[in-house]
């Protein structure tokens, strides 16, 4: 068993504070090229990525903040959670919220502090690189599965290169703005943005890593057709 690779998987978690240090384009190219080896039925490879840096990144952030300040309601191109979620998912989500805002020293009822953090979200937590992951407008569940394979490869590849990342579904609700800034066209569906950069290890928020469910909560073993799942 390759413990080094497994440690890359377990060490990956969302980072929300980055250094201004630039990320070499060659590093990003190597990660994206490797990530493209993700499984893809019939080798269709529906995923697309816009890599946004420099002034283009700054303009995208400005436009997103302006959209948020407008008060106009924006809707994402797709839903990422069932409604209602039910148990144990509602419980896990609530526990995450308490731990997450607690790690930032923000009271859950402090709307002003939460809005300030939302603005940092739209500024990509100062990450110098933003990746916008998008699919064809007619994407189906299986197409999203392919994108998930690819995106996980990207995030693990970044960890292997000493970088951190944070996928952002919340920013994707401004898909209309993102398409306009990047010239993607209405036929593209924005899946998420991904902040990428060198991690600020001094930021307390980057020490936050939510607990994961134990193996027994999400795994069933079947060794014989006549045996009960928990007796294998």
Helix and strand layout, with pairings?
Blueprint: H1 3-11, H2 25-35, E1 48-53, H3 54-69, H4 89-103, H5 111-122, E2 129-136, H6 141-160, E3 164-168, H7 175-182, E4 188-197, H8 215-218
Antiparallel strand pairs: 1-2, 2-4, 3-4
Helix pairs in contact: 2-6, 3-7
CATH architecture: 3-Layer(aba) Sandwich
What is the overall shape? globular
Low-confidence spans = none
How many strands, which pairing sense, and closed or not: the largest β-sheet?
4 strands, antiparallel
Question: Rg from C-alpha positions?
Answer: 19 Å
Average pLDDT number: 92
| Alpha-beta classification | alpha+beta
CATH class: Alpha Beta
Strand order of the largest sheet: 1-2-4-3
Q: What is the CATH superfamily classification?
A: NADH Oxidase
Distance between the termini: 23 Å
Count of DSSP strands? 4
Helix count, DSSP H or I runs of 4 or more residues: 8
**What proportion strand?**
5-15%
Percent range for helical residues? 40-55%
Output the CATH topology.
NADH Oxidase
How would you spell out the order of helices and strands? Answer: HHEHHHEHEHEH
Q: How many separate domains make up the residues?
A: 1
Can you offer a commentary on this structure?
By secondary structure, the protein is an alpha+beta fold. The protein has a single domain, classed as 3-Layer(aba) Sandwich (NADH Oxidase), CATH 3.40.109. The protein is 41% helix and 12% strand. It has a four-stranded antiparallel beta sheet with strand order 1-2-4-3, with helices on both faces. The two termini are 23 Å apart. The model has no long low-confidence stretch (mean pLDDT 92).
